[in-house]
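Per your request, structure below.
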């Protein structure tokens, strides 16, 4: 799984922040790691230098193999809040969409006729 982190001119994410973001992505999306090819994180300051209480926006785009990209965004007062909110939303969308695909195939049955769990 490749991880790309992009920021605008008003958001500064140093090496430690980028490593923390990458680790959080690995921890959260680990169970889907074999199906995810790339994760793009876009961090932006919506108001620019003016400041504000709810001005950091994070967009997480997840590329799942053989599927359309999944995107989720969240806007909050701080970098961590915005990132965690967007990542949690992306996780829920991935989980739901992959569960639907699994349910569409029906229950897995072994050669002996017993349902595989």
């Amino acid at each position: 799984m490749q991880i790309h982190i992009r920021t605008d001119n008003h958001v500064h994410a140093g090496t430690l922040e980028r490593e923390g973001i990458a680790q959080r992505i690995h921890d959260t999306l680990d169970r889907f790691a074999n199906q995810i090819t790339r994760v793009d994180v876009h961090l932006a300051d919506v108001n620019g230098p003016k400041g504000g209480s709810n001005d950091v926006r994070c967009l997480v785009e997840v590329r799942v193999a053989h599927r359309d990209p999944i995107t989720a965004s969240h806007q909050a007062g701080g970098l961590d809040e915005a990132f965690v909110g967007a990542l949690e939303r992306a996780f829920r969308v991935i989980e739901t969409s992959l569960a639907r695909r699994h349910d569409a195939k029906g229950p897995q049955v072994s050669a002996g006729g017993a349902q595989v769990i």
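The chain has two helices and four strands.

Regards,
D.
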